[in-house]
Design the sequence.
């Protein structure tokens, strides 16, 4: 059986699975966008998050990219409420305690220019008196809702979260709901990880 490797730009309010359970809130699933059978997501994005997902039927690669022991990099563009201080950014980078767990150190940078992203539907809430800030956060682990919990722990709740890159792959040339197969060169790079 040949291996398949796909990139998908997950829109807001889409589950990172192909079927919906009876207790899950309404919205679309991966099956509403991707007609390729037998592929599974490498990691997940919660329903409220957007951005890059890799899907494959290569179980060995899926394990290497998902397991925290291998520490592959994931970069998120995160719009947070307020203007984080240097101390808040340092705390995020050094690791914060969330739900009894100390996050690993990560890279955090304030984006000086708002990322060029399609408008989210529905848009984030806008509050005239509370500014927002865009951050780039690069992790080598991925706990459930980790980025949201990290920003909340330093007093800046996440308003919008977009995974921009995963294992060296990026959102480039994809719009929300778009997917494509990886090129042969991209597949070779993944196999070398």
Sequence:
């Amino acid at each position: 059986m040949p291996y398949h490797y796909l990139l998908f730009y997950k829109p807001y309010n889409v589950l990172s699975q192909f079927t919906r359970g009876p207790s899950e809130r309404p919205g679309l699933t991966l099956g509403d966008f991707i007609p390729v059978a037998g592929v599974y997501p490498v990691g997940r994005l919660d329903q409220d998050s957007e951005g890059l997902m890799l899907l494959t039927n290569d179980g060995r690669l899926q394990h290497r990219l998902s397991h925290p022991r291998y520490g592959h990099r994931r970069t998120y563009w995160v719009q947070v409420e307020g203007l984080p201080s240097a101390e808040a950014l340092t705390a995020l980078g050094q690791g914060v305690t969330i739900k009894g767990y100390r996050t690993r150190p990560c890279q955090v940078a304030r984006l000086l220019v708002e990322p060029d992203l399609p408008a989210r539907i529905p848009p984030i809430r806008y509050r005239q008196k509370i500014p927002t800030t865009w951050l780039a956060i690069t992790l080598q682990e991925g706990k459930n809702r980790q980025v949201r919990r990290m920003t909340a722990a330093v007093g800046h709740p996440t308003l919008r979260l977009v995974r921009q890159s995963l294992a060296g792959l990026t959102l480039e040339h994809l719009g929300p709901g778009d997917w494509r197969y990886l090129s042969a060169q991209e597949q070779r790079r993944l196999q070398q990880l």
